[in-house]
Structures are given as C-alpha cells and as structure tokens.
Amino acid sequence: MYYKYSGCSGVPMEGKCCCLPAPTAAMPSRYSAAVSQNEGSALDVILVEQPDGSLASTDWFCLFSHLPQPSEVAVRINGQPLHASLHAAAPFEPASFEGGAHIPPAGVLRTLATSPSLREGRNEICYTTAADGASVRASIYLWKKGARAVVFDVDGTVTLNDVVGHVGNVLDQSFVHRGVCELACQLDARGYSLVFLTSRTLLGTAGADRTRRYLFEVAMDSETGYRMPEAPVITTRHVSTMTALAHELGGQSGKFKTAVLQSLDSLVSARMPRLFYAGFGNREKDALAYLSAGVPPERVLIIDPSSLISARTSSTAMAVADAATKPSEATKPSQWLTYTALLPELDTLFPRLSTEERFAETFAAHAAKAAQGIAARGI
C-alpha cells in the first residue's frame, strides 16, 4: 500500500487524503535565477560515499560563456570555500583542476568527506572566476553508501513526448505524463536516489539550467499539484544545439547514456549492491542503456505516448508500439496505464528503504509543495 500525506492529521495515512496542507512559503526560485544569472553552465556533481567513508565523484564540469583572459576559478559549496581551484583557459572550454583533471585531488575529496558544510542530498556549488567575477551555479549531491538510484529520461518520459518538453521550456507549461511527479516524490520519500539523464545540451534554450528550471519549478502534476523532487540533472556537454541534434540523429545519444550510467555505476564499491535499481525511459536506447548499467529487466520501465508503461521482462513484456494497440493486454502485471497506476504497487516494486519517520517527513514536505502549486496555479 502506498501512502499519501494527510494535511488534517499531520501523519501519513493509507489511500487518498481529504485535503492537503496549506501553503507555507513561495515556490523555490533558485533555478530561475540560475537561468538569468549564470555566465556559462555546469553539470551537477554526484558524490558517492564509500564503505570506508571516502567519496567517489563524477566530473566537476564547468565552462564560462565569457572570459576576458585565462583565469583561476574559485569553488564554494554551500557558501564555504573549497581548498582547490580550477583553471579556465578560454570561453566555452571546460575549467579543470591541476593536470587537466575534472575531479578534485584525492586529498580535497577526503577533506570534503568530513566537512560539516556538506550534507546528504542537494548542496549548492558555485564557480567564480578571478578575472572578472563571473559565476556559474549548479548542484552537488551527496549519495550515502548503499544508495539505490532510479534514473529518469526527460523528453518523452517525464514530458508527454520528445517535442513538448522543449515547448514547455519556452512557454512555462508543464506537459508531463499524469502522475509522474507524484511517483518521483514517492520514490524520493522511500529513500531512492533519483537522477535525470537527458541528451539535451549543456547550454541554450534546452540547456542544463533551463532543464533544471523546467523540472523543478515548472513541471507539475495537474491533478494533485505534486512537483519533481530535486535531483541531479545530467546533460550532454554540447554547447551547440546543432551539434546536439547531429549527435541525436547520428544515433549517439544511446551511447552517451550508456557511458554516463556505466561511469556512475563504477563509483560504487564492489562490496556494495549495484547502484541502479530501476530506470524509466521511452525508447529502446534508454532500455539498453539501463540494462548495461545493471538494472534488472523487470525494472526497466518504458512509457509510450499514450502513457502506457511496460516492464521489459522476457516472459511478459512486448514492444511498446504493440502494447498501445492491444488495450486488453494492459491488465498484465508488467503493464500499467499511467504512472498513477504504479502507485498502489510501490510496496512490491519499490520497497521502502527509508525509515517510517524519514518517509513521513519527506513526503509531508512534498505534499506541502503540492499545496503551494495548487494555490499558485488555481487548480
């Protein structure tokens, strides 16, 4: 049985609740600020805690769109300085640590592992040039040891199809599959680490900053008001839309996703379970990328334009296109008509990893934001 938060009693309860808690604060605006203020862009960073307490890291990939001269780049995490700097040589070229590396030296990561300024989940990272004070902000996420991750593709998986998500970026319209935000909130509250992986560009109208803004400030379940939980957003490193389009048309996006997921999976100690627990996508290339990173076939979940979700199991799954033409097959255990239809089966599909107290606290926070969304948009 899945749970919804009850604004009446202040505790989780089974089934539908009769109301949601009243709005308590304005919706976050940091992603809108990043779109207008960032003088370049950066990928979100993921730090994975190891069994001995040390940290393994993804690349700290940052570039500046304007740079009058080569410059040192200072880094702050939650406002606290990192005792290592990067060097930026030219506009649109990624800054790097000593020796051209995109990951901080081991000693810096050891210090960061014990830093009180780094907290589990989302942290803010800010890169600032010494040359002219230009800055770029992104997020740095700490995943504790034993983390189990769920990956979401964006276009066609979160959004209704591959096109309308880009339109939504421009028009500030949600255009998401029914129930996808509530499902993501449930997974977050249950203790799963979410990550959004997309073939969008790093810069531009569908770049990393605008994608974060779309996911965390625009996307919303129209019926319930639930919004996406904050999670790492990983895009390509392309700075040109035309380059990204050529990459997509050339069939390279599947290879990109496979490489990213395998790299993330490699950050986990061999003594720990595989990192990726499940993956949601809308194309065969998504499924193949998830399988390559160790996601079991029964938890590779593919959604079609009608919102029908099929699990890629050898015994019962069928091609998404075929499933869309056979509505009678939707009663099979490996298929669901919408994301909302997955919710009653979460205890089986996604057993809770968090404590009851942590679950209640986290989901209550998501429900409060849902109420804010309802109030703000007059649903």
Automatic annotation (TrEMBL):
SUPFAM superfamilies assigned to the protein according to its UniProt record, in alphabetical order: HAD-like
Domain of life, per lineage: Eukaryota
InterPro entries noted in UniProt: HAD-like_sf, LIPIN, LNS2, LNS2/PITP
Positions of the LNS2/PITP domain: 150-312
GO molecular function, one term: phosphatidate phosphatase activity
Protein name as catalogued: LNS2/PITP domain-containing protein
